[in-house]
């Protein structure tokens, strides 16, 4: 969305969710969050799953409403900074790239960054020697900025349709994506079908276990766009459900602004028992 552009509220139908990790319907309300002036949400219930303990936002719109929202109201093309991401985001990408570089992923392997925005993380991976880089983002504006700034091909599409991306990938990245998705398991199942045998999945999300150490916690995470509140263990549980095992993980605190921080947990996964 451009600065000064007025948000019109989408026509939406909110409903209860099953737990995004274990699909249980039993939940406990821990907080009611309200929003003003959002195109997407007037509020939601922050709940925890009675079965697996995962925390998530309940009573939210359907996945199709979120898809439409990210297509129409994207702010991730960073038009107010000529498409450039912030210095703190670049530092975070550098840290995530260093984590990926410690693995055995081939520098010539095909990499797809799903929800790549303007492709800055792919650009950082390129600086680390990765050569076969592809992006996907729901906002068509992001593809144009990625081509202009980094000469990286970015297709327009979602985690559910993968746009016009075809073929298989040795590494698929979902960084800052899973916390935005209502149908988490459906999204992951769709993605893992596109990995080569032995291919890796890299996930990075805000870390709910780190919120207590964050000065502005937890309300900066209870935003209109963040609807899943992962921890290292709920992420591992989620990946086990789709048949993946964790190879490595990292938790760290990233600086967002002068006084704001965001705890991050990331992990690298492969198909359980798949070797490679
Ligand atoms: Zn659960």
What would your notes on this structure say?
The protein is built from six helices and eleven strands. The chain is an alpha/beta fold. A seven-stranded mixed β-sheet has the order 6-5-4-7-8-11-10, with helices on both faces. Helix 2 (87-101) crosses helix 3. The longest helix is centred in the middle third of the chain and has 15 residues, at 87-101. It starts with 26 loop residues before the first strand and ends in a 5-residue tail after the last strand. The protein binds zinc ion. Zinc ion is lined by residues 19, 21-22, 24, 49, 51-52, 54.
Feature tags:
binds zinc ion; alpha/beta; 6 helices; four-stranded antiparallel beta sheet; Rossmann fold; 276 residues; seven-stranded mixed beta sheet; single chain
């Amino acid at each position: 969305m451009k600065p000064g552009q007025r948000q019109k509220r989408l026509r939406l139908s909110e409903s209860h969710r099953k737990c995004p990790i274990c699909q249980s319907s039993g939940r406990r309300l821990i907080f009611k969050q309200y929003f003003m002036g959002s195109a997407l949400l007037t509020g939601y219930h922050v709940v925890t799953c009675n079965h697996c303990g995962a925390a998530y936002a309940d009573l939210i719109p359907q996945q199709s409403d979120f898809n439409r929202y990210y297509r129409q109201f994207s702010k991730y093309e960073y038009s107010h900074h000529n498409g450039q991401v912030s210095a703190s985001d670049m530092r975070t990408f550098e840290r995530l790239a260093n984590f990926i570089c410690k693995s055995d992923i081939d520098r010539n392997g095909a990499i797809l960054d799903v929800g790549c925005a303007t492709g800055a993380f792919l650009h950082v991976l390129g600086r680390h020697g990765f050569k076969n880089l592809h992006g996907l983002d729901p906002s068509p504006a992001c593809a144009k900025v990625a081509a202009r700034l980094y000469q990286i091909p970015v297709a327009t599409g979602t985690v559910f349709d993968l746009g016009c991306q075809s073929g298989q990938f040795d590494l698929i990245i979902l960084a800052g994506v899973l916390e935005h998705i209502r149908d988490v398991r459906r999204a992951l199942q769709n993605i893992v079908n596109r990995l080569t045998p032995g291919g890796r999945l890299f996930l990075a999300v805000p870390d709910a276990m780190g919120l207590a150490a964050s000065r502005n916690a937890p309300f900066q995470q209870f935003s209109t766009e963040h609807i899943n509140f992962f921890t290292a263990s709920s992420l591992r549980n989620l990946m086990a459900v789709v048949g993946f095992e964790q190879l490595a993980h990292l938790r760290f605190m990233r600086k967002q602004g002068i006084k704001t921080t965001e705890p991050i947990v990331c992990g690298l996964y492969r198909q359980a028992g798949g070797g490679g």
